[in-house]
């Protein structure tokens, strides 16, 4: 029995050392901890929330632009009308050719009326020529009758 122990004991010790080495050298668990998983989930949700905000802001901007700016077709149509009116105003038999001043840019980029046109309208309204002032304002700005009349009445 002593001979068996002398042989088995070193084999058991060798097996224990091999098991310890294999356990120590085995790759660790590469899974994420709960904290890492939470941070990753939080980053994903934050990115999705930011993308949704950007999309909502872009859609809101498009709605505002569509409501405040005329479409390209309307702009082209307006430009064509302006060119046609300018051609008519340049003819000798037209109303503008008979003494009224034709204003190339009646409305300034900020949406305000050209100061020269505003002064002429004001003097016409004060001199009792409201109908002529309304007519001139409508020709220069292409506005409707009611709007032009209200503007001249406020002068």
Summarize the structure in words.
The chain has 155 residues and is mostly helical. It is 72% helix and 0% strand. It has six helices and no strands. Helix 4 runs antiparallel to helix 5 and helix 5 packs across helix 6. It is rod-shaped, with a radius of gyration of 43 Å. The termini are far apart.
N-end to C-end Cα span? 127 Å
Mean pLDDT: 78
User: What value does the Rg take, in angstroms?
Assistant: 43 Å
**How is the biggest beta sheet arranged?**
none
| H/E topology pattern | HHHHHH
Features:
155 residues, 6 helices
How would you summarize the topology of this molecule?
Blueprint: H1 2-25, H2 34-68, H3 72-89, H4 115-126, H5 130-141, H6 145-154
Helix pairs in contact: 4-5, 5-6
Short account of what is shown:
This protein is mostly helical.
């Amino acid at each position: 029995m002593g001979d068996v122990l002398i042989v088995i004991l070193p084999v058991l010790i060798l097996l224990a050392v091999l098991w310890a080495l294999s356990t120590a050298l085995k790759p660790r668990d590469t899974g994420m901890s709960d904290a890492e998983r939470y941070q990753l989930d939080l980053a994903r949700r934050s990115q999705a929330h930011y993308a949704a905000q950007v999309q909502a802001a872009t859609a809101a901007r498009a709605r505002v632009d569509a409501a405040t700016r005329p479409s390209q077709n309307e702009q082209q149509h307006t430009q064509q009308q302006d060119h046609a009116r300018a051609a008519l105003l340049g003819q000798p038999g037209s109303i503008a050719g008979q003494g009224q001043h034709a204003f190339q840019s009646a409305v300034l980029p900020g949406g305000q009326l050209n100061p020269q046109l505003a002064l002429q309208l004001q003097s016409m309204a004060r001199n009792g020529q409201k109908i002529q002032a309304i007519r001139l304002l409508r020709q220069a700005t292409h506005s409707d009758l009611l709007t032009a009349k209200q503007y001249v009445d406020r002068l």
